[in-house]
């Protein structure tokens, strides 16, 4: 009698579920789309979420606002236009749109009935980032806003990073959640082994905890400066000195490191934002907060070494997830055989919380419908 292997069982189970790489990001969350420093006053900035073109506008006074980045007249990007007061004026025929999306001026039309406006997106600015709510705007106020590492805590110094990776966002979640891939980083980290300490999960999150044991090789300088020197135990198993907790709380991901006393040493928050319509290009936005050492200015001295170290690690991860995407592209479906329970639970979470591709709204169908009346006066110069 033929025996069915666990691998065959897993393959059959995956065939009965949606292809994870065809599950789109759920737009009903707050997503970062730009750094605050990249949008100057009286300027526009073109950004994109899953193929939806958006223009961010920072007027001389008041908060940033976001519009669908197409003038309804000839579909020219509004991001090519100019900012006047609380409006952005199309570079082609000078149509002007206020922060409510309403068309408030057509220079050659007079003051009669104005044409339809453009779609608006709720905007929030925090932690040096500009967030938009790409989904149902009515849900924006009731949707929790993420905690952004330790950006408001003076005891920590925070590094910004925003790499673009040519892969589906789900590969990024899997990569960070599964610390069993440390073999990939052996040139940067030396020989270390991840020890799985347990997991927790709920309707919208999955969390895994690890500690690391050095098997051989020298401890990297940046790691030693942050966590302290790990003692050489002459081959004996190292005790748990730091606990690494990785959590995907849809759609965000965090990595927190605490010492043996439970004090927070490092706090990473990251979001993976789809850029293109097919969600094969991901713009990452990350905030990495490091606890300042007791020695004044030491963190500033080690900051370049930390940046070099984390960038080298990321480049190895970037190469591997892009190779995973290339393999998916070759066959057009997900052939991964996953055996690690945490990642299996993560895949279920991402499938459950995301939007199947065939049910997702089309990016080019973003409406240029009449906008509601503004809640504050809109003026144009």
TrEMBL record:
The keyword Cell division does not apply. Keywords: 2Fe-2S, Iron, Iron-sulfur, Metal-binding, Oxidoreductase. Residues 30-132 form the Rieske domain. It comes from the Bacteria. SUPFAM superfamilies: Bet v1-like, ISP domain. InterPro entries: Cholesterol_7-desaturase, Rieske_2Fe-2S, Rieske_2Fe-2S_sf, VanA_C_cat. Residues 360-381 are annotated as: Disordered. Pfam families: Rieske, VanA_C. The keyword Transport does not apply. One of its GO terms (molecular function) is 2 iron, 2 sulfur cluster binding. This is Rieske (2Fe-2S) protein.
């Amino acid at each position: 009698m033929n025996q069915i292997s666990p691998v065959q069982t897993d393959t059959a189970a995956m065939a009965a579920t949606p292809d994870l790489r065809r599950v789109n990001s759920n737009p009903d969350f707050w997503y970062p789309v730009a750094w605050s420093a990249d949008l100057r006053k009286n300027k526009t900035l073109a950004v994109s979420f899953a193929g939806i073109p958006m223009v961010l506008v920072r007027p001389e006074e008041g908060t940033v606002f976001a519009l669908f980045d197409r003038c309804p007249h000839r579909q020219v990007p509004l991001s090519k236009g100019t900012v006047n007061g609380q409006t952005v004026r199309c570079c082609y025929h000078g149509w002007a749109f206020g922060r409510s999306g309403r068309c408030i001026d057509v220079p050659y039309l007079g003051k009669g009935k104005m044409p339809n406006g453009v779609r608006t997106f709720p905007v929030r600015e925090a932690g040096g980032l500009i967030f938009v709510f790409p989904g149902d705007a009515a849900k924006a106020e009731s949707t929790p806003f993420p905690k952004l590492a330790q950006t408001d805590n003076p005891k920590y110094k925070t590094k910004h990073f925003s790499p673009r990776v040519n892969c589906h966002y789900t590969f990024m979640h899997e990569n960070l959640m599964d610390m069993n891939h440390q073999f990939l980083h052996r040139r940067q980290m030396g020989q270390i082994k991840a020890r799985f300490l347990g997991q927790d999960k709920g309707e919208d999150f999955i969390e895994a905890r690890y500690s690391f044991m050095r098997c051989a090789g020298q401890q990297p300088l940046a790691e030693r400066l942050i966590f302290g020197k790990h003692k050489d135990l002459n081959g004996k198993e190292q005790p748990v000195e730091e606990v690494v907790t990785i959590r995907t709380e849809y759609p965000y991901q965090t990595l927190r490191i605490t010492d043996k006393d439970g004090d927070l040493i490092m706090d990473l928050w990251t979001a993976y934002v789809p850029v293109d319509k097919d969600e094969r290009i991901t713009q990452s936005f990350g905030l990495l907060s490091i606890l300042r050492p007791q020695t004044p200015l030491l963190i500033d001295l080690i900051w370049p070494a930390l940046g070099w170290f984390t960038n080298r690690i990321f480049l190895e991860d970037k190469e591997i997830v892009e190779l995973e995407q290339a393999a998916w592209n070759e066959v057009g479906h997900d052939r991964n055989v996953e055996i690690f329970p945490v990642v299996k639970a993560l895949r279920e979470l991402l499938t459950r919380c995301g939007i199947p591709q065939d049910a997702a709204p089309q990016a080019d169908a973003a409406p240029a419908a009449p906008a509601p009346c503004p809640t504050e006066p809109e003026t144009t110069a």
